[in-house]
Amino acid sequence: MTAVLRAQGLGKRYGKRWALRDCTVDIPEGHVVGLVGPNGAGKTTLLKLATGLLEPTTGGIGVLGGRPAAGPAQLAKVGFVAQDTPVYAALTVADHLRLGAGLNPAWDAALAKDRIARLGLDPAHRAGKLSGGQRAQLALTLGLAKRPELLILDEPVAALDPLARREFLQNLMEATAEHRLSVVLSSHLVSDLERTCDYLIVLVDSRVQVAGRTEDLLAGHHRLTGPRDRALPHGPRVVSARHTDRQSTFIVYGDASAPDPAWTAGRLNLEDLVLAYMDNATAERRTALEATR
């Protein structure tokens, strides 16, 4: 597997506070990768380290075989749409395209012009007068027209209404297929990832809890429900557990095709899977804190 992003023991500290610590992850090429986790998990910090906007405190990170932002050639390989889809309010749409052409040696003017026309954006309109969805589409256009090998998007649709979010993600999928991009999409909206991503990374407390092809992860995880007093079948690895007075429910990874007849096996959707790993990480953190008291 060729990695477009590889982090080893990566950490970033602000004063005494660690925003990211001991993060190790490989992100494969040729996929639309969903990076998901709770607020404060370190997603934005990881992506800013990948784009060279931040320098690591500890560990190392490589992107497309080089150090992030290490010169014009490396910068040209990566497109980035930040969380607030930044554009310049006082500049027109056309001004943004001229700026992009001046800053990016591989700028595809025809692609940018065509996308703007298909989106129905008036080149003479100032960005500050556009809707949130239109600003996000303009930012995506700028990212695509520089013709990157890797496109990084940090929660680009978090502030959009459902219709604008759907349109943005549909445009992203079309562009990814057309230009054969590797994409890393950070989001806390699992439904967005379910529609767009074929590879998933769950990041909690700056640690990767699970990573893999989405279809493989869903096929390999199961929900087992049975009596509270009945032993769980041996074999699958327990990801998370919940109990009532009479019933236990486990999310497990591994073969659950022939469990004890007392247990009922069921499939998971992507949200079930993500929440199970987040719940597990929270339980482990709680246990560790209690052990120090």
UniProtKB/TrEMBL annotation:
GO MF entry, a single one: ATP binding
InterPro entries: AAA+_ATPase, ABC_transporter-like_ATP-bd, ABC_Transporter_VariousFunc, P-loop_NTPase
Pfam families to which the protein is assigned, alphabetical: ABC_tran
Signal peptide range in chain numbering: none
UniProt keywords, alphabetically: ATP-binding, Nucleotide-binding, Transport
Record-annotated ABC transporter domain positions: 5-230
SMART domains, sorted: AAA
Highest taxon in the source lineage: Bacteria
Descriptive protein name: ABC transporter ATP-binding protein
